Amino acid sequence: MPFGRGERSETSPRPPARRKFAATVRPTGIERTFALDEVIVSKTDTAGVITYANDIFLEIAGLAEHEAIGQPHSIIRHPDMPRAVFKLLWDTIARGDEIFAYVLNMAATGDHYWVFAHITPSFAADGGIVGYHSNRRVPDRSAIAAVTPLYARLKSIEDAAADRASGLAASTAALHATLRDLRIGYDEFVFSLAR
């Protein structure tokens, strides 16, 4: 079946591996946005390697199709985004559950963009997970304002640690403690942020 505008073949050859933009690009402090009726869509395999990206994803990330397909989804990770949130995200979807999250990403130019992400596992006929599907919409600005201090605190904990592993462990513990103190799960927390 032919692919329509914005659809990418999941069997396209993979380009050579690339590191995250954060390793080679400095954040500009300029925010990119997309329209309320647009949805950023991508799919990955179980290792997080991009197998599909729609035109909105490519446009906002500043990538051509051949630059996105075959790359780790973490290529767009913004350096200010705490790793503890990604650990929670990966732990959740690896169990076969869906997750919603506010995520700060970075384009190839160093510009940043916020998304409200909904990530779900994709299942094979036998019930095994074969990959992940993510739809990202324009986030509620009040939710971004509410989540930013938490993300900054988690990132600060990660950066203050002696090594990456202990930083991630401390930040993850702080995230779980925050949720325990609020007496809500992560999904409830995420949905409580929008006003």
TrEMBL record:
Name used for this protein in its record: PAS domain S-box protein
CDD domains membership: PAS
Location of the PAS domain: 45-96
Superkingdom of origin: Bacteria
